């Protein structure tokens, strides 16, 4: 069976560039966590770090924010509880639900993650120059805003 003659972009699509940058950043964060003493961290755990609010969150809410199933998020949360990074306790607003929070170790992991993010920001500004890096950040933020606006039209 032959493949259809589909029109292809003449350069790498913007979405592919953003995806590659996102993956590289996530790999860097996991690699750095390993260097800082957390070798069992894996890239999938980034979805938890990105969606867990400091005061705690329900796993189902985290799954919605991450765009993944409740079951997948639940599996990640259980893995991170087993690693000692997270804790689960009854939700004070709903006794049937569980609230996911950072353990003492998890708070250190998060602090190290924020430190790495600051280091990356500084290195990117040095690499590209502060003005160019600010433009890149602004463009990425605006892309999301424009897509949201277009979705509403």
Descriptive overview:
This protein has helices at 14-35, 46-51, 59-66, 70-82, 104-128, 130-152, and strands at 86-91, 94-102. It is mainly alpha-helical and 153 residues long. The chain has one domain: Arc Repressor Mutant, subunit A. Strand 1 (86-91) and strand 2 form a beta hairpin. The longest helix has 25 residues, at 104-128.
Quick recap:
With 153 residues, this protein is mainly alpha-helical. It is 63% helix and 10% strand. It has one domain (14-152): Orthogonal Bundle (Arc Repressor Mutant, subunit A).
Shape: globular
Instruction: Give the tally of structural domains.
Output: 1
For the sheet with most strands, the description reads:
2 strands, antiparallel
Radius of gyration: 19 Å
> Which architecture would the CATH scheme give at its second level?
Orthogonal Bundle
The N- and C-terminal alpha carbons lie at a distance of: 40 Å
Please identify which CATH superfamily we are dealing with: Winged helix-like DNA-binding domain superfamily/Winged helix DNA-binding domain
The tally of helices reads 6
Q: Which segments are poorly predicted (pLDDT under 50) over 5 or more consecutive residues? A: none
Helix content: 55-70%
Strand content: 5-15%
Number of strands: 2
Q: How would you describe the oligomerization state of the chains in this entry?
A: single chain
Output the strand order for the largest sheet. 1-2
Q: Which structural category fits the helices and strands?
A: mainly alpha
Averaged pLDDT: 95
CATH class: Mainly Alpha
């Amino acid at each position: 069976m032959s493949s259809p003659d589909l029109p292809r972009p003449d350069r790498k699509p913007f979405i592919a560039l953003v995806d590659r940058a996102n993956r590289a950043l996530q790999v860097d964060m996991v690699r750095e966590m390993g260097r800082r003493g957390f070798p069992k961290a894996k890239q999938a755990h980034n979805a938890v770090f990105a969606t867990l609010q400091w005061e705690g969150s329900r796993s189902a809410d985290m799954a919605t924010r991450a765009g993944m199933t409740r079951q997948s998020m639940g599996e990640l949360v259980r893995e991170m509880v087993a690693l000692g990074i997270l804790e689960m306790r009854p939700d004070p607003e709903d006794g049937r639900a569980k609230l996911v929070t950072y353990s003492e170790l998890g708070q250190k992991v998060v602090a190290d993650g924020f430190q790495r993010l600051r280091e990356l920001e500084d290195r990117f500004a040095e690499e590209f120059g502060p003005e160019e890096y600010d433009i890149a950040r602004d463009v990425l933020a605006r892309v999301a805003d424009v897509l949201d606006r277009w979705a509403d039209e």
